[in-house]
Each structure stands twice: as C-alpha cells, then as structure tokens.
Design goal:
Number of strands: 5
Radius of gyration: 14 Å
CATH superfamily: Cytidine Deaminase, domain 2
Largest sheet: 5 strands, mixed
Strand content: 15-25%
Strand order of the largest sheet: 2-1-3-4-5
Helix content: 25-40%
C-alpha cells in the first residue's frame, strides 16, 4: 500500500470513529486529497429527519471546498462492511463535480482491503456542466 493510500485510510478511519449514526448504526468515514496535497476527512451525520443526513464523502468534499480547494486528487471511503463500500448516487455526483475523469476512488471494506477505480469508471455517464 503506497503512502498516499495509507494517509487517506488513516484519516478516513479516524473520521469513521466520529460518525453520528444512531438510526442506521452504519458508520462511514471518507478522506479526500486536494490538489494542494492536504487531506480533508468527513463522517456521515444522520438526522431524525432522514433527508437532512449527510454522507461522509460529501462532508469531506465540502470541507475541502470551504478551504478553497476545488479538485480532488483521490478519495477513499471506508465502512464496517465485508464488501468494498462504494459511494451512493448523490456522493458520486458530488465527487464528479470536483474530480477529473482520472481521479482515483478507493472503496474499502472493514478489513482495510480496497478496490480502486477512476471516476470515469465509477460514473461513466456523469451529469456535468456540459448539459447546462
């Protein structure tokens, strides 16, 4: 495992520990590296009004954007699952907004094993500004 992935994994695991998931008990952490090399992490935060819940991926990306960064170099998602944890549809759209087609997406399982793919592989028909 290379240094970048280890750094992402460490930050995502720490974020997962801060998850607020009293309804689903589905704790997720995510970490993104911006073009500036800084890592931003986030965890899922549930709400009793379910529509107000935010996923870990979006929490991390929004922190990055609020810090002035606009491009993800890589993103890693981890949860307590046996299978590799992919981002949901809403998170895929947000990931695509701040990524290039070659941005790497690392989907981990609870054993810290991962599957990687590019944004283009994950979202081959993404909605973009080209449609507006």
């Amino acid at each position: 495992m290379d240094y970048e992935i280890k750094r992402l994994l460490q930050k995502a695991k720490q974020a997962k520990e801060n998850s607020y998931a009293p309804y689903s008990n589905f704790n997720v952490g995510a970490a993104v590296i911006g073009k500036n090399g800084k890592i931003y992490s986030g965890s899922n935060v549930e709400n009793s009004s379910y529509g107000l819940t935010i996923c870990a991926e979006r929490a991390a990306i929004f922190k990055m954007v609020n810090d002035g960064e606009r491009e993800i170099s890589a993103i890693l998602i981890i949860g307590d699952t046996e299978k590799f944890l992919p981002p949901c549809g809403a998170c895929r759209q947000v990931i695509s907004e701040f990524s290039t087609n070659n941005t790497m997406v690392y989907m981990c399982n609870k054993h810290e094993k991962f599957k990687k793919m590019t944004v283009e592989e994950l979202i081959p028909l993404k909605f973009s500004i080209d449609f507006l």
